[in-house]
Amino acid sequence: EEAARLRKQQQQEADDAARKQQEMEEAARKKKQQDEEEAARQQQELEEAARKKKQQDEEEAARKQQEIEEAARKKKQQDQEEEAARLRKQQQQEADDAARKQQEMEEAACCT
User: Fold this and answer.
1) Is 98 helix (H, G, I), strand (E, B) or coil?
2) Sign of the torsion formed by the C-alpha atoms of 96, 101, 106 and 107
3) For the chain, what is the radius of gyration of the CA atoms?
4) Using CA atoms, how far apart are residues 111 and 24, in angstroms rounded to an integer?
5) For 83-106, what is each residue's pLDDT tens digit?
6) Whole-number Cα distances in Å, 97 to 3, 43, 84
7) What is the secondary structure of 48-67 as a DSSP string?
8) How far is the C-alpha of 57 from the C-alpha of 60, rounded, in Å?
9) Backbone phi, then psi, for 111, in 5-degree steps?
10) Can you give the pLDDT at residue 84?
């Protein structure tokens, strides 16, 4: 009877140990799965953040390029306007000089 009781107790302890081992393995498996899911989620967040940053950088570069082109266009227009004004002034000066010469010649002709 004592031997049977000891065998039963040992069997119970062995069953308990096996069950505990199984529970620990299951908990470890779940933990590993959670860690992998968390790592995958973090990786996805990093990739999304990198994608957004790249898009923002591209948009910023395009905006700066547009500003540079607009500034160059305005500068070119301003240069053309300044050149046109210079040419008008030069033509006016030449016309004034010609009119003065004409007047001098007329005055000289009348008084001789």
Assistant:
1) helix
2) positive
3) 48
4) 129
5) 999 999 999 999 999 999 999 898
6) 139, 80, 20
7) HHHHHHHHHHHHHHHHHHHH
8) 5
9) -100, 10
10) 98
Q: Where are the alpha helices (DSSP H) in the chain?
A: 2-110
Q: Which two tokens stand for residue 2?
A: 């004592």
What are 26-51's pLDDT values in tens digits?
999 999 999 999 999 999 999 999 99
DSSP character for 111? T
Separation between Cα atoms, residue 63 and residue 44, nearest integer Å: 28
| 4 token code pair | 């049977």
Q: Measured between alpha carbons, how far is 112 from 94 in angstroms, rounded to an integer?
A: 27
Q: How far is residue 35's CA from residue 43's CA, in Å, rounded to a whole number?
A: 12
